[in-house]
Amino acid sequence: MALIDLNEQAVTDINRVICQASGEPHGPSGVGSIASCLHSTFYPGGAPYEHGGVAGIAGAMTFYIAKAHAFINGNKRTASAAALGFMKLNGYRLSYPGTALGEVVVAAVNNALTLEELKIWFDVHKETLSR
Q1: Cβ neighbours for 83, distance < 8 A, ≥ 6 positions apart
Q2: Domain residues for 72?
Q3: 72 CB-contact burial (10 Å; exposed 0-12 / middle 13-18 / buried 19+)
Q4: What is the pLDDT of residues 99-121, one digit of tens each?
Q5: Is 2 inside a domain boundary?
Q6: Span 66-93, pLDDT tens digits
Q7: Quick one: which H or E segment has residue 128?
Q8: How many independent structural domains does the chain possess?
Q9: Cα–Cα distance between 88 and 86 in angstroms, integer?
Q10: CA of 128: how far to CAs of 24, 84, 93, 118, 125, in Å?
């Protein structure tokens, strides 16, 4: 089954909604590029993906978007929401206690968690959605 991926516009829209909900300004920061983040996430663009299955790709997406600081606000929240949306589109969800997702994303941004460790965290916490 082919994966359903996210594009640059979808991630930008996620950031816009997140920023509007919190009353923060939305827009590109000029630091990183969402297109580059997504290219790194979905490289080489077809199976077998460099980052593995859905959970590995979602972890990589979170890592790259959060660390790129491509938006002026809401980068970590956008990264988390994009990864959760990607997982849902592809038949999975995450199950974790309390604020664990936020905590691991902050740890990754602060270099306390590697890309590989974040991908493993996503894989450990993934559940298949019932259809």
Answers
A1: 58, 59, 61, 62, 65, 122
A2: 8-128
A3: middle
A4: 899 999 999 999 999 999 999 99
A5: no
A6: 999 999 999 999 999 999 999 999 999 9
A7: strand 126-128
A8: 1
A9: 5
A10: 34, 13, 6, 19, 10
The answer, as to whether pTM is greater than 0.90, is yes
- What is the domain-level CATH number for residue 56? 1.20.120.1870
Q: What single-letter DSSP state applies at residue 121?
A: H
Is 95 within the bounds of a domain?
yes
Predicted pLDDT of residue 15: 97
Share of the chain above pLDDT 90, in %: 82
DSSP 19-56: HHHHT---SB-SSS-HHHHHHHHHTTSSSSPTT-SHHH
Residue type, 24: E
Residue among 81, 88, 79, 80 at smallest CA distance from 54: 88
Confirm whether 1 is domain-assigned. Answer: no
Two tokens at 17? Answer: 């909604």
